[in-house]
Amino acid sequence: MKTPKGTTTPDESKRPARSSKRMMDIAKAAGVSLVTVSRVLNHPGQVSPRTRERVQSAIASANYVPDLVAGSLASRRSKIIGVIIPTITNSLFADTIQGLTDVVEKADYKLVIGSSRYDLDAEANLARAFLSRRADALILTGVTHNETTLKLLMNADIPIFEMWALTDNPIDTVVGFSNFEAASSMTRFLYEEGYRNIGFMGGLTENNDRTMMREKGHIAALHDLGLPVLPERIERTVFDFHSGAQALKHLLQRCPELDAVFAASDVLAVGAVFECHRQGWSVPGRIAIAGLDDSIIAAELVPPLTTIRIPRYDIGVRIGEEMLSRLNGIPRGQRQIDLGFTIIERAST
Amino acid sequence: MKTPKGTTTPDESKRPARSSKRMMDIAKAAGVSLVTVSRVLNHPGQVSPRTRERVQSAIASANYVPDLVAGSLASRRSKIIGVIIPTITNSLFADTIQGLTDVVEKADYKLVIGSSRYDLDAEANLARAFLSRRADALILTGVTHNETTLKLLMNADIPIFEMWALTDNPIDTVVGFSNFEAASSMTRFLYEEGYRNIGFMGGLTENNDRTMMREKGHIAALHDLGLPVLPERIERTVFDFHSGAQALKHLLQRCPELDAVFAASDVLAVGAVFECHRQGWSVPGRIAIAGLDDSIIAAELVPPLTTIRIPRYDIGVRIGEEMLSRLNGIPRGQRQIDLGFTIIERAST
DNA sequence: TTGTACGCGTTATCAT
DNA sequence: ATGATAACGCGTACAA
Q: For A67, which of B132, B152, B299 is closest by C-beta distance?
């Protein structure tokens, strides 16, 4: 051995001085070896109550904060979960994140959230960053990814969850609901309510399988019902209140015969209802309006909004549960978990 | 030496097999030493263009993902920033997070977000968890913290930012606006508009300095204006649409003489406006309603909402900028950064 | 129940 | 410009 080690005082001569205490300091203070301190923190059952207490009080009085970076390197477990969502300024995904948090925080996992801005290359970069940090599991939004992402994740050997959609061929496991079925159900519902001239306002479909499947679901339902599929009855736009208002105006200018509009997101539907207020159009008298999300505002709006409740909080909870069991060594169950949806009928239709 | 090391093949006999390649594998493939690979990744300028390219192509073809955990241990830099917000299901904080992200992601920092649920003990636990992960900097919401948090952070020796409020005595640096001044300005504004019987609906003030200062600001303004301070004109509630509606009903039942209501959060104001629609009360004819936030819905609401624009995105940006300069070794500037607020007059008053 | 010895994969230092 | 070597602080197999 060239340098003194073991129980001798560590060399402080080079590098920036260590700011915080290390496990060894606690061990000395408690009169035990370093491993015993490690056990008290990670496997308390393996340590006798007497020494455990001695160590714990040493930890407390020294204000010791274990170094999880070093711990992760040694244990090959980072206790972080990477989550990629399209945008954080969207309360719908926030509910999913909340569900996830509620489950995994009990097991001391932390979420690291990245937003892809609906850009598949950005998604790949985030995936790489999370793998680089040795995330114990990864969660992606949607089932559409680029080659880089797929190659990275195939080799990753950690649990991967896709969410907010369904596919027969997930990377690992997908937890969500059928955007196609949800949208077609609503269109069918409007038909059953007697509406025959149904407009549609949806999201931008590029790189977004959720909005694309909603549009396809609507169109398929029109087909099945024997209704005409008219391009002028469809508006695509970003999801915000103002765009919903604009989209409604455009639809009714082009197609005054419309008696109902299905918005593939509540935020568009709410914007549309506001536009009706401004124009003095009665809802649903002049035009019925339906949404999709059952966001928190839907029930409070005047009139309350007919919409589709999607299990956004439960998606998080379910992924959290599946993930914890996987991380505890339990083998993967179903590869596709469909949490369904519910049509909520309110006064706007 | 007891175990073979260096350029020999690593021992694969014990422990779970290493899933991914290491820097050493790349070095061998490129015919250079391990350090050179490290330099190509971290200080490319120090490597000659020729070898740099050789290494880079080796990295690319091996699909190598560097281990940032090991890197962090060696460099004492984690490249993560801990952020504690009261709740993630609140788009106001999401805007701040977005601002932060937009700035720090360019420098490859990742945010780790924890929600305290307005619980100061939970905040302390999150702070400890972030320190344990060797976060390079920490961001807290508000300026009220418990003893544990303060002790931890005083010893932390990393940049600490408090936000969404102001104080003369920050832990390190505070970036925000005066909730007190914002609220009192709005109350004064309503007075100037001719309203004399002003109700107030605010948030729960326990452990929440932002809502508390808003209430105090309102009351102080009433005092200054010579208006009576009547407890029955004040409602405290959680921030959601339904509570805003309820609060308005209660206020007008108790105090039918009210001609204006100031809601210390837009979500309450919007809920109140909805209640007016349901009851057939004209806004601002029967009752004027003002909010605080200038949330995305405020301008779209019918009638558009008079409110206070607060710099929630800019708070994130500014903290990000200050933080990056600190992390690059530039000394701390102002300890208190006031980003102000703006009253936005619309048709609801 | 407790301790010893080694390795986790990288960066920093110093030498060439 | 490049390389050899020693930390970084902790977890874990194995021994006692």
A: B132
Which residues have CB under 8 Å from B266's CB, separation 6+?
Answer: B291, B292, B293, B294, B295, B297, B298, B305, B307
Closest by CA to A255, choosing from A197, A192, A196, A188, is A197
Give the per-residue pLDDT at B285.
97
Count Cβ–Cβ pairs < 8 Å, chain A vs chain B: 128
How far is the CA of B345 from the CAs of B190, B275, B342, in angstroms?
10, 21, 9
pLDDT of the residue at A11 = 34
CA dist list (Å): A289 to A110, A199, A254 = 40, 9, 17
CA of B7 to C1' of D5 (A): 13
Q: What is the pLDDT of residue B336?
A: 98
The per-residue pLDDT for range B111-120, each reduced to its tens digit, is: 999 999 999 9
Sequence spans of domains, chain A: 17-65, 78-177+313-339, 179-309
- CA–CA separation, A332 and A290 (whole Å): 38
Residue B209 phi/psi, 5° resolution? -70, -25
pLDDT tens for B60-117 read: 999 999 999 999 999 999 999 999 999 999 999 999 999 999 999 999 999 999 999 9
CATH 3.30.420 fits B17-65, yes or no: no
Token pair belonging to B136: 């390079």
Cα B154 to its chain centre, rounded Å, is: 20
More confident residue, A260 or B20: A260
The model's pTM: 0.93
Q: What is the mean pLDDT of chain B?
A: 93
Adjacent-strand bridge partners of A83: A113, A139
Residue A77: its pLDDT value, please? 95
Q: Which residues of A touch B91 (CB under 8 A)?
A: 89-91, 94
Helices (H) and strands (E) in chain B — how many of each? 12, 12
Matching fold, domains B17-65 and B179-309: no
Strands A110-115 and B336-338: unpaired
End-to-end CA distance of chain B: 82
- What pLDDT is stored for residue B20 in this prediction? 75
Q: Residues 112-171 of A near strand C (Cβ < 7 Å)? A: none
Find the range with the poorest average confidence among A3-17, A144-158, A182-196, B14-28.
Answer: A3-17
Residue with tokens 């999300």, as numbered in its chain: A293
Q: How many residues does chain A have?
A: 349
Sign of CA dihedral B133, B136, B140, B145: positive
Q: Hey, which residues 96-115 in chain B have their CB within 8 Å of chain A? A: 97-98, 101, 108, 110-115
Question: What CATH superfamily classification does A179-309 receive?
Answer: Response regulator (3.40.50.2300)
Measured from the Cβ of residue B303, the count of other Cβ atoms closer than 10 Å reads 18
- Contacts within 8 Å (CB) and 24+ apart, B158-164: B159/B322, B159/B323, B159/B326, B159/B327, B159/B332, B161/B137, B161/B319, B161/B322, B161/B323, B163/B96, B163/B139, B163/B315, B163/B319, B164/B96, B164/B210, B164/B312, B164/B315
- List A126's β-bridge partners, or say none: none
What whole-number distance in Å separates Cα of residue B19 and Cα of residue B24? 14
Of all protein residues, which has its CA closest to the C1' atom of C8? A74
Q: What is the CATH number of domain B78-177+313-339?
A: 3.40.50.2300
